[in-house]
């Protein structure tokens, strides 16, 4: 369900094939004694400015890979519904372990140069000779367009061919924190550009025939970007995601199982969790411990902490 291109450093991805070993490189701990968060910001919300880099091939806006502004805005809306557990949306759940993350995402209002923006950058890749090899994927897309990673969450829309629908969905760099297992993430700067890459066909709601057509790929990848591990970790009950309120599992789930599979401890597995591989229509939950981990990353890692104080959040 999420997969990745082969590269020297593995990157967190959802995938459909048997490339499951890539998740080994995403091990992270959610041990409670490490994750006691500081108080919320004064308005009780963490806001993160987003810049969406639309890499297209010369199409008119709204056609082909040059996605419409409406679809981009709707994707950010879906992301916020999921992270805020909003009542009346697909992102709502009433599970006792479910939580509102108190994290919101805003299309950037000002550029790194301080000029007004709608948070969307469009690049015709057919007119640019990109010298960065495609297997160096983050640096390859950053060559087209890249805003200050300390102040913006960079999201690139990848113009992959239709043959990659349901094969490659998206992937993300992880945070550089002091949490256990952090060295297993594919880190961003100064090693490589950082952010999130999403297959154009899986960005936002689309008409493709797929279990992943409702915009939850971005929700999943933002989870990785903010420090969350897949629920099954390294496919071992003893070393899964280490979050105490997610039942331990040793494998992923897919589709929308009608018979809930059991976790390693005999409890029902959390098939609705955004960090599983289930279908977009089945996902609607982050847990309290997952939220603690994301808050810790936002409060204690330099390249994430600076996001919530970004000038990109303000009108110029």
Q: Can you give a write-up of this model?
A:
The chain has helices at 69-84, 137-144, 216-225, 288-300, 302-305; strands at 12-15, 46-56, 103-107, 120-124, 153-158, 168-172, 196-199, 254-255, 277-278. It is of the alpha/beta class. Strands 1, 2, 3, 4, 5, 6 and 7 form a seven-stranded mixed sheet that branches. A two-stranded parallel sheet has the order 8-9. α1 links the parallel β2 (46-56) and β3 (103-107).
Give a quick summary of the entry.
The protein has 316 residues and is α/β, with parallel strands linked by helices. Strands 1, 2, 3, 4, 5, 6 and 7 form a seven-stranded mixed beta sheet that branches. Strands 8-9 form a two-stranded parallel ribbon.
Could you outline the blueprint of secondary structure elements for this entry?
Elements: E1 12-15, E2 46-56, H1 69-84, E3 103-107, E4 120-124, H2 137-144, E5 153-158, E6 168-172, E7 196-199, H3 216-225, E8 254-255, E9 277-278, H4 288-300, H5 302-305
Parallel strand pairs: 2-3, 2-4, 2-5, 5-7, 8-9
Antiparallel strand pairs: 1-6, 6-7
Shape: globular
Biggest sheet overview: 7 strands, mixed
Q: Uncertain regions: pLDDT < 50 for 5+ in a row? A: 1-34, 36-40
Instruction: Report the mean per-residue pLDDT as an integer.
Output: 88
* Tally of DSSP β-strands: 9
N- and C-termini, Cα separation? 40 Å
Please give the count of helices.
Answer: 5
Strand-pairing-aware structural class: alpha/beta
The proportion of residues forming helix, as a percent range, comes to 10-25%
Write down the secondary-structure element order: EEHEEHEEEHEEHH
Strand content bin: 5-15%
